[in-house]
Amino acid sequence: MDVAIRYAAGSDVGVSRQNNEDSAYAGPWLLAVADGMGGYAGGEVASSTVIQSLRSIDADVPPERLVDTLGEAVTEAHDKLRDVIADRPDLDRMGTTLTAMLWSGKHMALAHIGDSRGYLLRGEELFQITEDHTLDQLLEDGSGSSRLSNVLFRVLDGRSEGEPDMTPREGKVGDRYLLCSDGLTGVVGPEQIYEVLSAGDDLDAAVRRLIELANQGGGPDNITCVVADVVEGPAEPREPVIVGAAANQR
């Protein structure tokens, strides 16, 4: 049985920000969300550099090569950030989170660093499949309410080692995945996310509704979402969707 993914993506500047430092990519085999940081311009450059670098692996990779291929691509993207900083010392404080999936049939590799998130809706249950790399999680608080809740200890920044969590996973037909920046999860809880993801088959409508809920909650940050279904059938020869800062860097 052939298995493929169907996808939608969207990004919004939010209510409080003047520029969008998020970037995302959704294609037949690759899904990725990056949330840049580092002040005006820096975050945009960081997230778009990483997403544009990763898009080269949006291809049908043998299942046994998924983790290595995605891991090598993340390392290459990290090295590109280092090169950008060498050319632009004014961007030496930039960095970005990354949550990415590389698919081959029902098999998938997951790369994660930072506090963007991945969720899985399987049946009637919603699972968070990534762990935030924030100091309160590191200190086993995890409440999300302390002053450490937004302080990241691991990101892609071209300076530190930038080691992502790398995990092989297996999807099932009927699974629905969400990759998102913390502009969504900072104001929209898992109950609301579950309600949206389980509401119907229209992936674009789900993306729009999640962004709408985040803005209704105050929209304090940029909001970026990729929603994907695991379906029976071959991969579609469809154009990838690129949103956020990376959409201006094609």
Structure description:
The protein is of the alpha+beta class. It is built from six helices and twelve strands. The strands form two sheets. Strands 2, 3, 4, 5, 6, 9 and 12 form a seven-stranded antiparallel sheet that branches. Strand 5 (98-104) and strand 6 (107-113) form a beta hairpin. Helix 1 (42-54) packs antiparallel against helix 2 and helix 5 runs antiparallel to helix 6. The protein is globular, with a radius of gyration of 17 Å. The N and C termini lie far apart (35 Å). 50% of the residues are buried. The mean pLDDT is 92.
Portion in beta strands: 25-35%
Q: Low-confidence parts, pLDDT < 50 over ≥5 residues?
A: none
Number of strands: 12
The N- and C-terminal alpha carbons lie at a distance of 35 Å
The Cα radius of gyration reads: 17 Å
- Structural class based on helices, strands and sheet pairing: alpha+beta
Number of helices: 6
How would you sum up the major sheet? 7 strands, antiparallel
Query: Percentage of helical residues?
Result: 25-40%
The residue-averaged pLDDT reads 92
- Give the CA-based shape: globular
Q: SSE string, helix = H, strand = E? A: EEEHHEEEEEHEEHHHEE
Secondary structure blueprint with pairings:
Layout: E1 3-12, E2 22-26, E3 30-37, H1 42-54, H2 66-87, E4 95-96, E5 98-104, E6 107-113, E7 117-122, E8 125-128, H3 135-138, E9 165-170, E10 176-180, H4 182-185, H5 190-197, H6 203-216, E11 223-232, E12 241-244
Antiparallel strand pairs: 1-11, 2-3, 2-12, 3-4, 3-5, 5-6, 6-9, 7-8, 7-10, 10-11
